[in-house]
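dude i think i finally got it to work??
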Amino acid sequence: MDGKYHYFSTEAEAKAWLAEDEFVSLEGIDLQDAVEYDIDLEWLVPPKASSELELKELMYVKKT
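look at this
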């Protein structure tokens, strides 16, 4: 990701753009993926915010 805002005509167009960076939607992650990629599914929740600016700050979380 480049840290910039991107606007798309459709959700499908946005998903295609994200897929180029190996994006997988949360709904597409199963237990096998979680084990393979060391993802704690209970910890992983979609970010929520009252504005786009607040949301942008929550979009990247460094796993320690």
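The longest helix spans residues 11-19.
im so relieved honestly
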